[in-house]
Amino acid sequence: MKLQISSLLLASLASSTLAAYNPHSQHKHWLTSRADTSDDVSKVNNKDFDFIVVGGGVGGLAVAARISENENLTVAVIEAGGDGSEHEDQIYIPGYSYLNGLTVSDYDWNYKVVQQQVINGNDQTFGSRWPRGKGLGGSGAINGLFWCRASSDEYNAWNTLNPDSRIDWGWEEMQKYMKKSETLHKPSQEHIDTFNINFDEEYHGTDGPIQVGWPYYIYDPVKHWIPAYDSLGINIPEDGASGNNHGPVITTSTINPSNMSRSDPKAGYIDPLPPRPNLTILTNHQVTTVDFSDEKDADGNLVANGVYFGKTDGSTDSNDYFRATANKEVILSGGTVNTPQTLQLSGIGPEDLLQQYDIEVKNALPGVGHNLQDHAATSVYFNTNVAETWYELKDDQTAAVELEKWRNDDGKSKWSYVNQAIAYPDANDIMSDQLDNFSSNIQNNIDEYADSVKNMYNEDDTVIAGMREQWNITHGYLDKEVGQLEMLMTMLGGGPGEIGFQLAIQHPFSRGVIEIQSKDPFTHPAIDPGYLTHSADMEIMRQGVRFAIELSKAGEMGDYITKQENYNNNTDEAIDMAIRNDAHTEYHPLGTAAMLPLNKGGVVNTSLIVYGTSNLRVVDSSIIPIEISAHLMATTYGIAEKAADIIKTHYSQDDPDERNKQGSSSSEEGDGDSGANKKGIAIGVVVGIVGLATIGAVAWAVRRNMKKRAWAHSMAVSTGRGVEAEGEGSPTWGYKEGSSANLTGGVGAGGLAAAGAGAGAVAVTSQSDDTLSPSRPSFHSYDGFDGGAGVAVSDLLTNGHGYGVVPQHDFSRSISSIERAEQAQAQAQAQAHTHAQDEYQQTPSLSSTHDVHTTPLFKQ
Ligand SMILES: Cc1cc2nc3c(=O)[nH]c(=O)nc-3n(C[C@H](O)[C@H](O)[C@H](O)COP(=O)(O)OP(=O)(O)OC[C@H]3O[C@@H](n4cnc5c(N)ncnc54)[C@H](O)[C@@H]3O)c2cc1C
Ligand SMILES: *[C@@H]1O[C@H](CO)[C@@H](O)[C@H](O)[C@H]1NC(C)=O
Ligand SMILES: *[C@@H]1O[C@H](CO)[C@@H](O)[C@H](O)[C@H]1NC(C)=O
Ligand SMILES: *[C@@H]1O[C@H](CO)[C@@H](O)[C@H](O)[C@H]1NC(C)=O
Ligand SMILES: *[C@@H]1O[C@H](CO)[C@@H](O)[C@H](O)[C@H]1NC(C)=O
Ligand SMILES: *[C@@H]1O[C@H](CO)[C@@H](O)[C@H](O)[C@H]1NC(C)=O
Ligand SMILES: *[C@@H]1O[C@H](CO)[C@@H](O)[C@H](O)[C@H]1NC(C)=O
Ligand SMILES: *[C@@H]1O[C@H](CO)[C@@H](O)[C@H](O)[C@H]1NC(C)=O
């Protein structure tokens, strides 16, 4: 066991040699613009804030930045991990963050799932790992950068599940808020043409904090993606963000095109802020529990009045936990694993569970930690006749040369590449003539599965009732253009020239659970995603494997793929066994603090307030009640943006001005842009813009409200003054606030001034685009983290020593590492191993299994 630990450490060290090639110190300026961020506990301990946000990830940083736009509200964020300064290359360099990323590092919680019923191989190496970002930016700092939305039906389902809500969470609303969080940067015409990039600006934001676009460099095989689907007769959406994502897209990534760096929650929502004394961010401290007042409110609800926290390294004695007071609210943004854990530790959760760990039951809520859903994934790998794939960056020399380019030439490097070719085939595409039978089998099987979930997880009837409604919706998706699988082309396989098609089930019927297994907040909860425990999920995965193989032969894709590396035995049994040996997370867990009615097992209401409390909110991916066909980041930002408006509107009631502005709004917590949001136009805006530019901006904004960016480009060129203004203050942020005021503020005098300021700021920020685009060969895109991660991770983990992963925490339900190792050896002989892992394992017995499937399926 010790030996294995040290091989893991050595592997990590080896993989960081590239980072050492160019000293981090030259990038220290990345950090200087940060808001008040430190691990100095005295800034938060024994202090009060209006809001305390638990967790500085995607939901947490976005909601904290938005609330603190109101100068009357103070916000503290407490983040368990570090501030990222130790890991800048691994966070900010897009491709580098895949091949040398932060999964299995101190920026990862390093969770593992318990032994799965259906997945044999689950506990070997990569398969059992459940990465979650631990540090500022959360999973948004370590993820695959995919920026994509689900279809309108899938957001509308949130309304269907909450029929009595006066707050709308349907597509139009979510689209509005996802747009609010993003700024789209168009790809170059050359990239559009070469890679068939399908997008339409109409569906994207123009002034949000998160910069999205396509990489500078895109590997050549991506050009076959869209045509291959076309040749199969599958729908090609006009833009995956349009509300119909059925079919293939070369999707956007969270990449800032000015320098091809990751636009993570910190870079987007925090770094551009001018000093904002209302926002305090404490790192390296973990919230342990929510502190509730002894008194309940007039409606009998618990009142959260603060949080307890300790140093994340566990060195704070539980008798000496720190405390901070929340005058208004505690907001849980710890994500799908930690939010239910914190609730359970604080006395809100399934009664039996809390009693088992001797935790006082403050509010028995059976849904907390339950209703867990995730996308399970596997990959089919192929050899190709192309010389250049991501694998070339596994070569130290090439990697170093490209790193230099990234650093010195505005990111114009192969390291800008990330996987971007994805597709969402629907049930008809993948099940074809078996669909009717499949569908009626599921319908007949619902009662049986409900019983089995009840037994597996000791499930409460309310939670089962909520699942039944979800299953009904999921079943209904079979007849709709709703993606059942995500197909994802990864440019990284197990060797030179290899690529992979990852496939992941998007609408699982299977349900899992996350429960504490100790009263100690520093002990990981037990995570059981219940992968493929519903047989329909296995069938979809099986058909997905066949679909991937069909795709590999489609159109010109077939001309360059030379060999299929795994899943070569096409019988149901063989494919199922291979899936059992390989399936793992696609990193999209949700549902553990579901926004559902209380009698349907819900944890939060549609204001995101935890039932039975007056002021404890959840703002993260755990509130999503039912899976969506998308990676979750854009949706989670949308949730945070909407939550911030709900919150700001609620608290502006105290202010007579705001009350007047809301006028006839009947809802206590409206869901539009709040008044508070329309001010603060001029934060750091554009000192050097000429008056004429402002006037021009006003005129244009009135005429073409939505096209500010197009205008801004020409304005920057024609005035030439935007150049001088660049670098003064925080143009990006000023621009955003100004233009969002413009968008929502109508034609009042304030609105026009806002438009002017906003547009002026646009001129400043987009000036840099204009400088870049003429000489830029254009942005390119790739796909790839999710498949590629397996490779990177297994590289780290195994390093020639076989399956040497030592769990940091042994779960009561998990098997021992010795058994794991034995299983792994056995599985290595099986036909379907994770191909990518093999290539990195020097162990002869493992690499020899490669020979099991060397028969080329087709020739070039
Ligand atoms: C490896 C990986 C790849 C992914 N790839 C993509 C992708 O390409 N595209 C995409 O859209 N999505 C992707 N996702 C998913 C996406 O990143 C997450 O769904 C999203 O970040 C969820 O946001 P969140 O706010 O719920 O949680 P997170 O972003 O994970 O933030 C939670 C934060 O809370 C902190 N925290 C937790 N508990 C405590 C506590 N008790 N005290 C203090 N702080 C605490 C954590 O350290 C973390 O910083 C990926 C995820 C992973 C892990
Ligand atoms: C919030 O910050 C602003 C400056 O951005 C300052 O004027 C204001 O006083 C602060 N408010 C509080 C409540 O600290
Ligand atoms: C990239 O540019 C943005 C502004 O466009 C800046 O905020 C960020 O710090 C830069 N990132 C790196 C890694 O240089
Ligand atoms: C329908 O599904 C059942 C259960 O999977 C299977 O046994 C049967 O052969 C299928 N029938 C047809 C016509 O495909
Ligand atoms: C199931 O969904 C259908 C629509 O697909 C709806 O008409 C029906 O009422 C739902 N049934 C239940 C029990 O929710
Ligand atoms: C394929 O798998 C089946 C089990 O489903 C097995 O009987 C058969 O021998 C396998 N074929 C090959 C060529 O390995
Ligand atoms: C959610 O619960 C809170 C606290 O009880 C309440 O104030 C709020 O109005 C509720 N929201 C909705 C949409 O019912
Ligand atoms: C902050 O409070 C002041 C004084 O009460 C008020 O004039 C102002 O409108 C408030 N700002 C916001 C954004 O609510």
From TrEMBL:
Task: Show which residues constitute the signal peptide.
Answer: 1-19
Q: Which cofactor does it need?
A: FAD
Q: Where is the composition biased (Low complexity)?
A: 823-834
What are the residue boundaries of the Glucose-methanol-choline oxidoreductase N-terminal domain, all occurrences included? Answer: 133-156
Family matches, as InterPro entries? FAD/NAD-bd_sf (IPR036188), Glucose_Oxidase_domain_2 (IPR027424), GMC_OxRdtase (IPR012132), GMC_OxRdtase_N (IPR000172), GMC_OxRtase_C (IPR007867)
Pfam families (UniProt xref): GMC_oxred_C, GMC_oxred_N
Q: Does the keyword Transmembrane helix apply?
A: yes
Q: Which parts of the sequence are annotated with region: Disordered?
A: 651-675, 818-860
What protein name applies here?
Choline dehydrogenase
The taxonomic lineage of its organism, from the top, reads: Eukaryota, Fungi, Dikarya, Basidiomycota, Wallemiomycotina
